[in-house]
Amino acid sequence: MWYSHGDRALRILPRDEKFYDMFTELAKRLTGSASILQEMFQSPTQLDAKVTAIKGLEHEADNLTHDIIDRIDRTFVTPFDREDIHSLASELDNVIDLIDGTARRAQIFRIQKVRPAAVVLAEVLARAGCAVEEGVRDMKNAKHVYAISEKLKSLEEEGDAVYHEAMGKLFAEGSDAIDVIKWKDLYDKLEDALDQCEDVGNVLHSIALKNA
Q1: I need a surface site. Which of 29, 41, 85, 122 has the fewest CB within 10 A?
Q2: How many whole angstroms separate alpha carbon 180 and alpha carbon 211?
Q3: What is this structure's pTM?
């Protein structure tokens, strides 16, 4: 036979499919936190409660990410490259960290009146979160993952257009300097989270290509 005894062992040993379930759970935390953030910008009257809820999901995501990375070291045969498992877990966790950071800044800034562009950006981010979860849930389907990757790219471009228009308007209005600083920071963080969702799509695309 062309393969060695070691190769034969790898072919016989089952791959640890648990990683797929763990990634789905991580993606669900992303979708959940993005949805709460959208609600928070739509109606900031329950700001503290929303921030607390997002922090709870962020903490769960940190634990899941730790468990995934720890499982890599304890697993003999992974479903795909170890580096890709680590990368996907990190990229997903990064999105949730950015969402958490955005919510906490809104709380620190004591946001009461929300700018319309922030509501739109948060809505685009929530859609991107749903797309990420959809891609992760069906990541064994390469064709579907490619479509999700393109969708995330399109959503990032949509958000980018809103971001640039919002920033231009913010500075053109000659608003209070403190208000400008607050909203520039919040717009930046929302855009960063959208960029990170696109990065997740790129990792999923790369994994699909390697394993098609």
Answers
A1: 85
A2: 47
A3: 0.90
